[in-house]
Amino acid sequence: MASASLSEKGMVESMAPGTPVVEFEHVSIGFDGHEVLRDVSFRVEPGETRILLGPAGGGKSVLMKLTNGLMMPDSGSIRVFGRCLQEMTEKELFEMRAHVGMVFQESALFDSLNVEDNVAYRLHEEHVSEEESHARVVEALRFVELEKAIAKFPSELSGGMRRRVSIARAIITKPDLLLYDSPTGGLDPITSTTIIELVVKQRDVSHATALLITHRLQDAFTLATHRWSPTKSAMEPIPDHGLDPGTKFLVINEGSVVFDGGTLELTGSTDPWLRSYLQ
Ligand SMILES: Nc1ncnc2c1ncn2[C@@H]1O[C@H](COP(=O)(O)OP(=O)(O)OP(=O)(O)O)[C@@H](O)[C@H]1O
User: Fold this and answer.
1) Which sequence ranges form a coiled-coil region, renumbered to this chain (predicted)?
2) Which atom of ligand 1 is nearest to the CA of 59?
3) Do 199 and 214 touch, CB atoms closer than 8 A?
4) In a mutational test of the pocket of ligand 1, which residue from 62, 104, 214 has the highest number of ligand atoms less than 8 Å from its CB?
5) Is 257 helix (H, G, I), strand (E, B) or coil?
6) Residue owning the nearest CA to atom 6 of ligand 1
7) Ligand 1 centroid distance, CA of 195 (Å)
8) Ligand 1 pocket check for 57: Cβ under 6 Å
9) Hey, which of 43, 141, 167, 219 has its CA 20 to 30 A from 194?
């Protein structure tokens, strides 16, 4: 894998079998003498949706920025698509990020650009033609059920609509890895559920690998217990109380991994701290 060009499309398909999409090994990072992540190790397999849970300030956003190569660890190694980020040049990191879609906290749209130009931002960077770009923007906006807002500006949109635009912008390049940093943060419970429905849709339609930070346990369990129904064009509970096998959890508290595993293990854990956190 080390010799494969990162500019090829379909990073996951070109990885050697058994290679995780994301792999942290003994990663630590601190700021101003304060350790934010301590000896963090975990793997995210192809097609997996990994939910990051834990109290505020525990280091979840830092972990996500490390995954995207926006920060480098003080020690340990981070491999994405089988390549060690610390061994990459700036150019290689830039190429790697072309395969990663990011939904930032608070949407992070450009206020001076309309929805079309916000969603097309990365296509413009890649010098995709106007015609192709428009067709792909329409497709991405249709996915998030927001075609009608194509000419609007962010200030004209509700918080939930802005989050949808942000998801359309992240998926427009058909990324192999999606990073959602608190996609429901600041939204009311009903709007949050519509955003989680989109995440479920994206998971079950594209099978892209994803990392998702959430502060809402309800979002996490909705992801684990629901699937996208193409016939109903809606999210539905997995029958017989089934669980999505590709949805897993990483719980971080004060910089350390306190849980790494599937839904049943999490809900069945007897660890006192986890039990009180999940209540
Ligand atoms: N660039 C930075 N410089 C200095 N300190 C930082 C930096 N980035 C993050 N931190 C600190 O790292 C700690 C963890 O922050 P982080 O945002 O990752 O937590 P979080 O678990 O995502 O929290 P929240 O759930 O509130 O989003 C915080 O104390 C934060 O102030």
Assistant:
1) none
2) 18
3) no
4) 62
5) strand
6) 31
7) 24
8) yes
9) 43
Q: Where do the domains of the chain lie?
A: 48-278
Q: Whose CA is nearest to atom 11 of ligand 1?
A: 36
SS (H, E, C) 45-89: CCCCEEEEECCCCCCHHHHHHHHCCCCCCCEEEEEECCEEHHHCC
pLDDT tens readout for residues 139-160? 999 999 999 999 999 999 999 9
How many angstroms separate the CA atoms of 185 and 262, rounded? 23
pLDDT in tens, 171-222: 998 999 999 999 998 888 888 999 999 999 999 998 989 999 998 899 999 9
CB of residue 256 inside a 6 A radius of ligand 1: no
E strands of the chain, at which residues?
22-31, 34-44, 49-53, 75-80, 83-84, 100-103, 177-181, 209-213, 226-229, 234-237, 247-253, 256-262
Q: What tokens were used for 6?
A: 């990162």
Model-level pTM?
0.92
Task: Please answer whether residues 259 and 266 qualify as being in contact, where contact means their C-beta atoms are separated by less than 8 angstroms.
Answer: yes
Q: Order across the sheet with 100-103: list the strands.
A: 100-103, 177-181, 209-213, 49-53, 247-253, 256-262
Mean pLDDT for 127-136 is 93
Ligand 1 centroid vs 60 CA: distance in angstroms?
8
Place of tokens 């304060």: 34
ipTM field: 0.95
Measured by CA distance, the residue closest to atom 29 of ligand 1 is 57
The CATH superfamily of 48-278 is P-loop containing nucleotide triphosphate hydrolases (3.40.50.300)
